[in-house]
Specification:
This protein has 265 residues and is an alpha+beta fold. It has eight helices and ten strands. The strands form two sheets. Strands 3-8-10-9-5-6-4-7 form an eight-stranded antiparallel beta sheet. A two-stranded antiparallel ribbon has the order 1-2. The longest helix has 41 residues, at 75-115. The chain is elongated and about 90 Å long. The N and C termini lie far apart (81 Å).
Amino acid sequence: MRYKIGDVSRVLGLTTAALHFYEKEGIIDTPKEESGRRYYEEADLFRLISAKKYRSMGVTVRDIATQFSADGMTGEQVLSRMREKRDEAEEMARQYERLKNDIDRLIVLGERGLAAKNAVDICQAQDMYVLRTNEGGLIPKDKADQEITQRYLNEMPCVNLSIVCEQPDGRASFALMMPAERAVESGFDRERSVIRHVPGGMALHAFVPCGEEQYETPEIIFKPILSFAREHRFVQKGAMWGNLLFVDCSDGVRRHYYDTYMIFE
């Protein structure tokens, strides 16, 4: 049976460029009809579908061409590469499971935030790591520190765009935070130049919406918990921080929802 190049390309999801590459490498032989149109036979389809199988494992087109050549890989070599691809798939599965858990966390916090604006409660805040440059910006000027920041951002969405207050005068600034457990797991506990440990503990907690004023006065997000602390005589012990959950643009107004904490004695 003969198969047209357009049908093969469409059904197998292979570009004509990929098909021409396989032809050039001698993996398939593409005869022409008298009219000059190319067609494929069963042997070609057999090889192309086999190639699609290996592409689904992440094997490159060029490596497939090498494998399928007349003096290609031995059976044991093929199996060895399958084992490598299986190990890569297992690592990807772990990464996707972690991604799923990170997204789940954001959804749960976001749902709670929509339902409990500015309401203050008490909870156990986890230890955090904060990435913030000495210059006070989100991106360091030092190239070595920029590389650390790039690796740090690769941990998103576990990394939070945050507002942090560690100053006695109450001034706050933007930073990037992630749970200490994840930071240590990823090796960031050794990067002392731009990353610091922020201890957790018992904390006042509130979900706080705010507008564009956060850019001029970022400490505004701590107003609910600071008011509660004064009213109920809580004494601040450590840092205050707020993690951005999402931005709500209902009614044409941009509202930034933060998950805020203040460690107290």
